[in-house]
Amino acid sequence: MTRAIAARLGVVAGAVAGLWACASSETPDVGLEALALTSVEPGVVITGTTLAIRGDSFVAAEWGASTLRLRGMAGGRSVDVALPAEFVDYDNMTAQVDADVVAALGATGQVSRFSGEAVIEVVSAVDGETYTSGALTLSLDVATELTPEIASVQTGGLLFVNDAVLVTGRGMLLGGNEGDTVARVTGCFRATGGTTCTPVTEEVIGLQPAAPFSRDEASFRFVPAIAGIREGLFMGQVVIENRHLGGNTIAAAPVAVSYDLVSAEVFQVTPPVASLGQYVMIDGGGFVGGEAGASTEVRLVGTFLPTGQAQGAPVDLLLIPEFETGNRVRYVISPSDALGMAIDLRTVTGTFTGTIQPIVRYQGDMVVGPTRNVTLGIAPVKQVVFIDFRPSYVESLRTFGLRAVDQAIRARVLDVVRDAFRTVNLELRTEPPTDFALFSIVEIHGPDPNNQGLFGYDNSPGKDVNNIRLHDRLGGVNAATQQDGYPGYGGVFIESLMGFSLHPASGESLPGAEQLFDDLFDPFRPDRGEIIVSKDLAGGLPAIDGAVCPASDRRARIGCAVWAMGSLIGTTLAHEIGHSLGLANPFGDGFHNFGDEPNRLMDGGADRPLAERAIIQGQGPADFCEDEYLYLRQILPSSEPADTSPRPRC
Fold this sequence. Notes:
The protein is mainly β. The chain has 4 domains: 47-142, Immunoglobulin-like (Sandwich); 149-251; 279-378, no CATH class; 384-635, no CATH class. The protein has 10 helices and 36 strands. Strands 2, 4, 5, 8, 9 and 10 form a 6-stranded mixed β-sheet that branches.
């Protein structure tokens, strides 16, 4: 089991006193200082609607109770309606509209128009004060239920099975607690070359809004259950219905439709070059899957030419991709399928040239589509790492008085980690990857959920020599690690860094605690100095080199605090990623380097002093030692030239 830094420290319960601009104190709750409301959707509201609220500086429930307030006129009278708002992230919240809210907004059997303004109110858990956003001018149509008014249903022309059929009109439902708008499809199908139009059983298919809040445009899939997967002519009618949750079903008038159905076909394959664990997107039409008796396969026939070789080998492979939609399936470059069995995807690169052909099966029927020429390159292994900054990380910055410079600290963290892995084929992401199936996740938290004061911890199972997994998760709880007696929660835990202080807000100082830490952060700690607020950031942050830290004036001190905090988190993060890749001593015993060398990243926690971690006063940045760097270049080969900078010995 990989083990990381195990420094023990009490949890700091950062409390920031103060009020917002409307209050008497000069020190606001910095988390709510920029509270803003920019939109409330949708514009038509019924019983069961979930309102989507966008803005800025929203906070989770533990930091404040949030309310969406609507004030104005509705149904010929003045209204003031308060809806509890639920935190999604710092820019988004939701609020639920029930029958009482609809009635309060004047809808009693007919559509009512609310005209007025909306604000977000938050009662801060930090100082007890109420913070209010600026007012947003808002108009809402409010009703108890909606009648679908259909202007058109797409008809005529060529159609693949599972294609989206466009519906336009008014008054369609958005799903969830509102209920669903559905299409009832009936008619008959005549196969190509046949003479009889055979009646089909009525199918009911849900509509999907064309945009998140669109009630005017939606679509339903022409599912294979309607007419199968073969070519032919479908003739029939579509009835659009609103099925309100717990309420009435209201239908629009039938609309006649007809379609020339065509069989499955591949149009393109992207990207042209992919590596182990990456998705290859296969776009086309007529694909099926996601239900019993439905599957899509693709056949590759051609030649694979390994990089650097003059002659290729013949290839005839049947691959089973993942169904996404009727127009897209995706295939993961994997060592366990036919392609992975044919070549070693970790060590072999090259190019496949040949044809691709879809094979579609549904309820015992099979259709083979036409072939299309395709070229697909196999690239060297890449490790994609999703850095997940959790809400607890953001709020724990209050402990250090640094919440207002969250984004600057994140940028510094990423710079530090990228520098540590320079010329290694590793890529950092701050959003969940959609182009890779195999990627690792490292969560950045505030407190250590293990209650052990850890800076960071790799809770993945076992030492992953040669990085076989590619999909480690350093975060959440791992039951396997709990069972062997080790901490279960992984990630990086920033509140534990307070243990470097000679006077932590709570708990005890670490053996490595020193005045340097307090010189860097005391000016901003809520229990020692003045927290950073928006007025401190006017004109932007100064460009700081760690060599000048700690600084003397407040502006430079802010720059140093950002540099040092970002470096402390970044070096810890790089260390934990190193563990997940099989370091240290990938082919030997132990999880850290033996002994103590200056600026050696995979040394144990006690051998990595504060200045080295913070990259200040001429110490750091810590690096992977010589053998570790060669190992990383071996398992994650890069097209960049090798880095020749001096490295510590192993």
